[in-house]
Amino acid sequence: MDKLEEIGREITENISNHKALIFSQFLGMLALIKEKMKELGVDYEYFDGSSTVNEREKAINRFQNDENCRVFLISLKAGGVGLNLTAADYVYIVDPWWNPAVEQQAIDRTHRIGQTKNIFAYRMICTDTVEDKILKLQERKRNLAKDLITDDEGFVKSLTKEDVEYLFS
């Protein structure tokens, strides 16, 4: 699996003494990444939607304060609200979500009061896949939202037949 190898390489070769958040919308993918981190000897924390408030707080505190804990694995949906993870300066979105705002919320976990570092955010997209289409759909969605906000005529009039066909293809 190329993504798994790539994320392992990124964490062991490129982030050095930095800290990284790794988001995926799929618990199965997070489980594979956990195994990869164990295999590589990388100390990490983890939570998903089933984690209790206490488990979340413990994981957050350890990631924020323990220099040995370099990676935080988080499900995309569970990581969208109420997190302040300024210890991280790398963010990896392992698989795209159709809604770009959800991804942006995940990236924003690092952009909080007290953040003093530059943030590097990576979306891991394989070309000519459904992921690639999702990325293109996100771009169209951004453009539609921009048109809706800036155009008093409404964005529906700007939709072409091709836009509608793409959305439902």
Under CATH, the homologous superfamily of the largest domain reads: P-loop containing nucleotide triphosphate hydrolases
> What is the second-level CATH architecture of the largest domain?
3-Layer(aba) Sandwich
Biggest sheet features: 5 strands, parallel
Report how far apart the termini are. Answer: 27 Å
Structural class comes to alpha/beta
Per DSSP, the total helix count is 6
Q: What is the succession of H and E elements?
A: HEHEHEEHEHH
Mean pLDDT: 79
Number of strands: 5
Q: State the share of residues found in helices, binned by percent.
A: 40-55%
**CATH top level class name of the largest domain:** Alpha Beta
Low-confidence stretches: none
What overall form do the CA principal axes indicate?
globular
**Strand order across the biggest sheet?**
2-3-1-4-5
Describe the structure.
Helix 1 crosses helix 2. 46% of the residues lie in helices and 13% in strands. The mean pLDDT is 79. It has 6 helices and 5 strands; from the N terminus they run H-E-H-E-H-E-E-H-E-H-H. Strand 4 (90-93), helix 4 (100-108) and strand 5 form a beta-alpha-beta unit. With 169 residues, it is α/β, with parallel strands linked by helices. It folds into 2 domains: 2-123, Rossmann fold (3-Layer(aba) Sandwich), CATH 3.40.50; 130-167. The radius of gyration is 18 Å and the shape is globular.
